Amino acid sequence: MRGSLRPGTSRTLLLDLPELGTLNRKQVAALVGVAPFNRDSGKVKGRRAIWGGRASVRSMLYMASVTAVRCNPVIRAFYDRLRAAGKPYKVAMTACMHKLLTILNAMAKAARPWQVAA
């Protein structure tokens, strides 16, 4: 993401997700509702799906991911790789939301701004 997060995005993260930076990546993904949960029973393997979590953060994260897919080279490459592998649009966007949330959590934990690895 070039520059910083937009004011509305930052506000939503600060107000609706105060745990950002204090939890590990799996916990924060489950808290927001972008972690895939299985629906297995015995030998039957069900489909993975996201559910629950904080809807306001999830909807903000979706819009941030739409922008990141267009403007952020890291998220764009990740999205393109998933689509080339045959993943549907919603699956690829949910994975981008998960990745963006993981990046934001790491940034908050380390108290560092966005940096592209060289």
TrEMBL record:
InterPro entries: Transpos_IS110, Transposase_20
Molecular-function GO terms, alphabetical: DNA binding; transposase activity
Transmembrane segments: none
UniProt domain Transposase IS116/IS110/IS902 C-terminal: residue ranges: 13-79
Entry's Gene Ontology BP terms: DNA transposition
Protein name as catalogued: Transposase IS116/IS110/IS902 C-terminal domain-containing protein
Species the sequence originates in: Sorangium cellulosum
